[in-house]
């Protein structure tokens, strides 16, 4: 995807000259002749980078003030300053205020191009580092699997990744839907743009629209840039899209049609260029029939349907997945990976994995942590690691305690243990737990609160 660069200079011919140079290099450009026009242009649509003249005659704001204002609202925006009267002081001041670099006029074309390239590469690196940091949360774009089902999934990815088609990824919790979405982004020409995830299951209705569309500043709150805008030139994943509140569903249909929207409290239109992918673990046909999911949104999102079967229906994938997850765990824990014996792999293949790859990842991590360095992992350790969740939480002493309580308290104690067990099993993820215990997410939240175990979720993933 071509990067879009905003050029801010009060001199028409310099603006045009820079725009010409950049367009020849394949960049898209926009121009602004004053500080005010620059602020408006950025508010209308976030560019990849801004080239900003320090001296803006006839403007209410000079370049350094514009720099301040842009950095305040968009800390990650890269800004390269230019000036005809560059002094070292000015350059130092600008970089202290957050400018990426400072170029003195008259500048050579290759200096300008090199600086821009460096700035854009830095953005990409930063994003990759962020992705790496969340590696254990599933942010890598790697898809292991040799089963027929996964080969089909991979074929579909190959076919659609490099188009702008919307893809609806369906499958049970932990099957790898987000992993597939990341791979689609990684393989697309939007690869150097952002990959932004909107988790529809965790946002409450009141904050949903602000998170998605952003908010103009008012007396109390600063401007907030929504996820839709953050995904400009990249991909937005609507994770667990069935949980999107009905009012937002209607709004997003319009955005998908027009690629523009208004921030909350705002009146101007923000144009975005975003590819949208969605995941769901619910049957959307059913949700539509129940009046919980809009038909028009369904048809807009379901351009390419892609289904990931549960792990128990593709046991061929388990050996390679286990090995991959072992390496991943070992890396994140700073330990050496431990070899799995053939019997251990067979034992892993025999289990049904209701929590799918998440559960497999948990068990593999437990095997790693409980084994001695260099020790071959055996089948009985696997059986123990799989069963351990239950033994850990529902301990016999506690069961005896429960037996001595009146029914109401015993039931509460059981419910608490039961839900904690499944929450632990699903890494603190409410949506996945709710799906497994067959409860509505909101009802599960209320139940946990009622049982006084809501706090264990703090810091847990949703
Ligand atoms: N085929 C795969 N190859 C490698 N890693 C995988 C694969 N499938 C899943 N994973 C890993 O397993 C974990 C769960 O996968 P992911 O988050 O993509 O599942 P999901 O279906 O989106 O589940 P949920 O919506 O419940 O989070 C992640 O850490 C992911 O990286």
Unreliable segments of 5+ consecutive residues: 131-139, 390-394, 455-462
Cofactors and ligands: adenosine-5'-triphosphate
Which strand order spans the largest sheet, edge to edge or round the barrel? 2-1-3-4-5
Name given to the CATH homologous superfamily of the largest domain: P-loop containing nucleotide triphosphate hydrolases
* Number of beta strands: 12
Shape: elongated
**Mean pLDDT over the full residue set:** 85
Domain count, please report it. Answer: 4
Total count of helical runs of at least 4 residues:
20
What top-tier CATH class of the largest domain fits best?
Alpha Beta
Evaluate the radius of gyration: 26 Å
* Largest sheet, strands/sense/barrel: 5 strands, parallel
**CATH fold group of the largest domain:** Rossmann fold
Q: Which secondary-structure class do the elements indicate?
A: alpha/beta
Quick description:
By secondary structure, the protein is of the alpha/beta class.
List keywords for this structure.
Rossmann fold, five-stranded parallel sheet, Helicase, Ruva Protein, domain 3, alpha/beta, binds adenosine-5'-triphosphate, 462 residues, elongated, 12 strands, single chain, 4 domains
Commentary on this structure:
It is a single chain. The protein is α/β, with parallel strands linked by helices. It folds into four domains: 4-131, Rossmann fold; 136-309, P-loop containing nucleotide triphosphate hydrolases (Rossmann fold); 312-393, Orthogonal Bundle (Helicase, Ruva Protein, domain 3); 396-457, Homeodomain-like (Arc Repressor Mutant, subunit A, Orthogonal Bundle), CATH 1.10.10. The protein has 20 helices and twelve strands. The chain has helices at 12-24, 35-44, 63-73, 88-96, 109-133, 148-160, 177-186, 205-213, 227-230, 246-258, 284-289, 295-301, 318-333, 342-350, 356-370, 379-393, 396-403, 407-425, 430-436, 441-450; strands at residues 4-8, 28-32, 49-53, 78-83, 101-104, 167-170, 195-199, 235-239, 260-262, 269-271, 275-280, 304-307. The chain has a five-stranded parallel beta sheet with strand order 2-1-3-4-5, with helices on both faces. Helix 1 links the parallel strand 1 (4-8) and strand 2. Helix 14 crosses helix 16. The longest helix has 25 residues, at 109-133. The radius of gyration is 26 Å and the shape is elongated. Adenosine-5'-triphosphate binds next to helix 7, helix 13 and helix 15. The site of adenosine-5'-triphosphate has 21 residues, from helix 7, helix 13 and helix 15. InterPro entries: AAA+_ATPase, AAA_lid_NorR, CheY-like_superfamily, Homeodomain-like_sf, HTH_Fis, P-loop_NTPase, Sig_transdc_resp-reg_receiver, Sigma_54_int. This is Sigma-54-dependent Fis family transcriptional regulator. Residues 4-120 form the Response regulatory domain.
């Amino acid at each position: 995807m071509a990067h879009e660069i905003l050029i801010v200079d009060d001199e028409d011919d310099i603006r045009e000259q820079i725009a010409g140079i950049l367009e020849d290099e394949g960049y898209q450009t926009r121009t602004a002749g004053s500080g005010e026009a620059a602020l408006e242009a950025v508010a209308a649509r976030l560019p990849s980078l801004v080239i900003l003249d320090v001296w803006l005659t006839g403007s209410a704001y000079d370049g350094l003030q514009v720099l301040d204002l842009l950095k305040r609202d968009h800390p990650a925006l890269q800004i390269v300053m230019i000036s005809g009267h560059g002094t070292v002081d000015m350059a130092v001041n600008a970089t202290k205020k957050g400018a990426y670099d400072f170029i003195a006029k008259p500048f050579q074309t290759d200096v300008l191009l090199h600086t821009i390239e460096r700035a854009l590469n830095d953005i990409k690196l930063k994003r990759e580092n962020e992705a790496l940091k969340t590696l254990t949360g599933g942010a890598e774009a790697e898809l292991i699997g040799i089963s027929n089902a996964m080969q089909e999934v991979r074929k579909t990815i190959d076919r659609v990744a490099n188009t702008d088609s919307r893809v609806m990824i369906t499958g049970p919790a932990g099957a790898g839907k987000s992993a597939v979405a990341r791979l689609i982004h990684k393989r697309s020409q939007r690869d150097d743009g952002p990959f932004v995830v909107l988790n529809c299951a965790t946002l409450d209705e009141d904050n949903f629209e602000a998170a998605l569309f952003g908010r103009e500043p008012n007396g109390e709150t600063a401007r907030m840039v929504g996820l839709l805008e953050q995904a400009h030139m990249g991909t937005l994943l609507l994770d667990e899209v069935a949980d999107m509140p009905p009012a937002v569903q209607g709004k997003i249909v319009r955005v998908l049609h027009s690629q523009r929207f208004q921030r909350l409290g705002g009146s101007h239109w923000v144009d975005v260029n975003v590819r949208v992918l969605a995941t769901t673990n619910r049957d959307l046909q059913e949700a539509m029939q129940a009046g919980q999911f809009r038909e028009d949104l369904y048809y807009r999102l379901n351009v390419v349907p892609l289904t990931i079967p549960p792990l128990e229906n593709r046991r061929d994938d388990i050996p390679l997945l286990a090995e991959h997850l072992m390496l991943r765990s070992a890396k994140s824990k700073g330990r050496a990976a431990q070899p799995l014996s053939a019997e251990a792999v067979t034992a892993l293949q025999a289990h049904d994995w209701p929590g799918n790859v998440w559960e497999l990842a948990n068990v593999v991590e437990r095997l790693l942590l409980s084994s001695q360095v260099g020790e071959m992992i055996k089948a009985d350790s696997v059986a123990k690691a799989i069963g351990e969740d239950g033994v850990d939480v529902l301990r016999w002493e506690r069961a005896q305690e429960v037996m001595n309580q009146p029914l109401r308290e015993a039931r509460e104690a059981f419910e608490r243990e039961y839900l904690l067990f499944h929450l632990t099993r699903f890494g603190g993820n409410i949506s996945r737990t709710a799906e497994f215990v067959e409860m509505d997410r909101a009802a599960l939240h209320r139940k946990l609160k009622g049982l006084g175990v809501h706090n264990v979720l703090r810091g847990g993933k949703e």
